[in-house]
Amino acid sequence: MKNENVDVVFGFGLYPAFVSWMAISLLPPSARPAFIVSEINSPRREHLETSPRWRAALNDFIRRRMYPAATIYTANSLDGVAEAIEWYGVKPHKSRRVPNLIDIERLRGLARWEPPLDDPRPDDKRVASICIVGRLFRRKRVDTLLRAAALLDKGLDWRIDVVGDGEDRPNLMALADELGIASRVVFHGWLENPFPLIANADMMVLCSEFEGFSNSLLEAMALDVPVITSLNTADAKDMCARGAALGFPVGRYDILRDHIETLLRNGQRRLSLVQTARRYIQRHLLANAIREYESLIMDAFERRGARSHP
């Protein structure tokens, strides 16, 4: 913080934000810039699941002191805002929900994909792809998709494309074999560019126990891929209530099976989801999201001025 002319500091992530906050605290009160802190997880849920416990306690200690002290607290999820208010003492008028950032042109370039004129996943003779993306560990609950797939109507032709790696991969491969679907499940591992595979999928599925706000779902929507998500957050429930995705309770592979069969059989239902999702993601598209961030920064700047000149 050598430059005392800084007006606003934006801290992304817990530890970078903490370092910024501590540096700001060393300045004289009149020279302190406005401080915006950004949370990308569900802070209370993350605290409950962080290990070892000393790290969870340290994170909790930092949050309880830093979040209320920020000029504006932001989160990219409804739960991130609600939990900061309920558990960490953030005042509602100092909190703000911010969008994710989706660069749709970049995504399409990476996918080498052009938007279709009609149903983006027409019925044809190719094998339908059910795609799931993420680190393979217990919280992602990829087993839910495998169990749902094992119950699908025998007359349907499909495969599961698993993108990602992690400690749960051997267990998931063993489960696919146990369920008799190993020949239909492709474990791609980590891919530097997964977007061609995602863009050509018939649906994207997320089974997690909880998330902050899944960027992978927004990216799938931006590529006109229908989405099915576990109802693991307030945002997941909201996108399903708006008709932008289909939802199922965490772990309910029977309901997930029903949704998968619906999308495999019904092109109009796929198209309806895609069209609604196009409207749903508008706030998160880069140009629109940048305007929101610019407004947020100006708000923080004005609050700093009001504090400096009562």
Description:
The chain is an alpha/beta fold and 310 residues long. It folds into 2 domains: 8-99 and 286-308, Rossmann fold (3-Layer(aba) Sandwich), CATH 3.40.50.2000; 104-284, Glycogen Phosphorylase B (Rossmann fold, 3-Layer(aba) Sandwich), CATH 3.40.50.2000. It is built from 13 helices and 10 strands. It has helices at 14-25, 43-49, 53-69, 78-88, 104-111, 142-150, 169-178, 195-199, 215-222, 234-241, 253-265, 267-280, 286-308, and strands at 8-12, 34-39, 72-75, 95-97, 128-133, 158-163, 185-189, 203-206, 227-230, 246-248. α10 (234-241) links the parallel β9 (227-230) and β10 (246-248). The longest helix is centred in the C-terminal third of the chain and has 23 residues, at 286-308. The two termini are 25 Å apart.
Which features does this protein show?
310 residues, alpha/beta, Rossmann fold, 6-stranded parallel β-sheet, 4-stranded parallel β-sheet, 13 helices, 15% strand, elongated
